[in-house]
Amino acid sequence: MNISRRKILVSAASIAATLTFATARAQLQRSVPASLRSRRAGYGAAVTLADLNSDPHLAEAVIRHCTQIVPVYELKWGHLRRTEADYSFDLADNLLSFAESNGLKMRGHNLVWYAVNPPWVEALGNARDAERVLVEHIETVVSRYRDRIYSWDVVNEPIPDKAQHPGDRRPCIWSRHLGARYIPLAFRTAAAADPKAQLVLNEYDIEQIGDDFASKRAAFRNLIFELLDADVPLDAIGMQCHLRGDKAVDREGTQKFVAEMRSLGLKVIVTELDVQDQYLTGAINERDAIEASCVDDILSAIANAEPLESVLTWGLSDRHSWISQMFPRSDGLPNRPLPVDSDYRPKPFMSMIEKHLRAIY
Length: 361
Ligand code: G3I
Fold this sequence. Notes:
By secondary structure, the chain is an alpha/beta fold. Helices cover about 45% and strands about 15% of the residues. The chain is built from 15 helices and 11 strands. Helix 8 packs parallel to helix 10 and helix 13 runs parallel beside helix 15 (about 350-355). Residues about 1-20 have low confidence and may be disordered. Ligand G3I binds next to helix 5.
């Protein structure tokens, strides 16, 4: 039976308009037959439950294209831990059930970050309290999702944007009280809570040509060696790949970094791929071509050492991207940072994902 894409979209929209999310989710699963899924092994996208609930086209596109998702903010301290006594798992639980009921995996993001910590965390006054709170959080969150969330960004963005020396580390509440040992502590606690989970150190701005990118990559590499020398249970390196469309990918530098990481037994995964296009000029097809070329460059460089296993974009459709708020275009035209446009039509960006990841049916 030839189910037209339009009929799927109309039915998804009508379903979602009248039913609860849970029922719509079940219906959506039936409204995207396996034969119409165009998925690539390991491809996924960051989503919010709010967007999945409010936009049935997004849910349908995620089911059609993705094999995994990652929550944008629902597992971060800012949402999870508004007070020390409470954990707000509701949204993350709903996202995980959406994933599992549609045959998708889910990544966890993130257990430790310098940003979006609630005020009571930023007010922690000594090492004893900081260690107790950090360990308890990781134990509670990781063990709750043991054997269900397969991969965690354990520590996110530990290197400052302008790393003056390889030993530079980004200051945060945790380093203020625990020094650099907060990072090994976080990984060891996560490993104890879920020995099978993939534990990832995640960073951005280490992929393109420029002194700041090279210095940040050198400091990131320095930290990785420190952790491996201390037998910290680190499984993978997360390259966020928030690319700037107006800058060149450092293919040689990225290839060298990735090859070295893999020689150390570490996997390299792409965790937040998108393209900041606010400075790109020209017609839409020209901008899309430049964006696709950036994506091809980074994925080729990372895949040079061995095939890519996991590539997530930070959003799926241009309709839902942080870049539109953070980096609007001066010409007022909509940003186009992601693989699928705001009408859910795949762009040349998606073709680059399909080029580098094997098709699964
Ligand atoms: O709408 C919700 C509200 O209902 C909820 O109560 C509240 C809880 O904090 O969040 C609200 O939504 C916003 C959320 O984005 C979804 O749009 C939050 O206010 C806002 O703080 C949050 O910002 C996100 C930011 O991380 C901080 O969590 C951005 O969307 C997200 O793109 C950004 O993502 C980061 C990665 O985690 C790490 N790498 C860089 C990347 C981009 O900055």
